[in-house]
């Protein structure tokens, strides 16, 4: 059997507007497939599935979700390959939802209407699992010896603050920006080494690898809209088409030109 395609997303919800009672859920329309779906997307190589869910929801809806309880996992076939999508509930944080990145419309719908609007039964089943409630993190600490080994005592705990500031800088600067280690350290408010270490501990990869993932994804979006590979490479921040081809093939196992021919506007409309 072919290796499964791994993806993740979220059911973003909020209390119904104007005190009407109940909740509303956020759904998206994808023009490529002319369908209504839950915000979701494929996991990048080496990316944690939780980061995939947060990134994909933000890229498609402009909402930065705060993930809550895990919902069901959906499995189905896409062009003969198994696909697995993990979902989480995510209470809306007051962010303004707006279509972006392969999505041309978003809609807040009452819970029953949201289930009816979705194009696929498996998405409706995910919404059916939602139990709207605000949650708070619960951290479990294991009690052990009060003595701290010398090697551990000399190692400071990772500060998520610098990592978050670096990530925000990368997103705000855009994929075409050529950020230096000094830029990242300035944003983080610490040394270059400390900035790199904090980011790697928080997200599991180096800042440069993270920005490269964003560039590859940006190029993929451009290619899917029919943009020629050379133009997609320049707009996404790659040095040239050969640079894009090398990394695109590493991530997706296909050249940008072949991907554009397969999924561009002239291609078929199989579900993503």
Structure description:
The protein is globular. The chain folds into three domains: 5-128, Alpha-Beta Complex (Nucleoside Triphosphate Pyrophosphohydrolase), CATH 3.90.79; 157-204; 214-263, Arc Repressor Mutant, subunit A (Orthogonal Bundle). The chain is 41% helix and 19% strand. The protein is of the alpha+beta class. It starts with a strand and ends in a 9-residue tail after the last helix. Strands 1, 2, 3, 4, 5, 6 and 7 form a seven-stranded mixed β-sheet that branches. It has eleven helices and seven strands.
Short description:
This protein has 272 residues and is α+β, with helices and mostly antiparallel strands. It is 41% helix and 19% strand.
Strand content: 15-25%
> Could you spell the SSE succession in H and E letters?
EEEEHEEEHHHHHHHHHH
Class of the largest domain in CATH?
Alpha Beta
Question: What gyration radius follows from the Cα positions, in whole Å?
Answer: 20 Å
Key structural traits:
single chain; alpha+beta; Nucleoside Triphosphate Pyrophosphohydrolase; Arc Repressor Mutant, subunit A; seven-stranded mixed sheet; 11 helices
Protein topology:
Layout: E1 5-15, E2 23-30, E3 35-37, E4 40-42, H1 49-61, E5 70-78, E6 81-91, E7 105-110, H2 111-117, H3 121-128, H4 150-153, H5 160-173, H6 181-188, H7 192-203, H8 207-224, H9 229-236, H10 241-252, H11 256-263
Parallel strand pairs: 1-6
Antiparallel strand pairs: 1-2, 1-4, 2-3, 2-7, 5-6
Helix pairs in contact: 2-3, 5-6, 5-7, 6-7, 8-9, 8-10, 8-11, 9-10
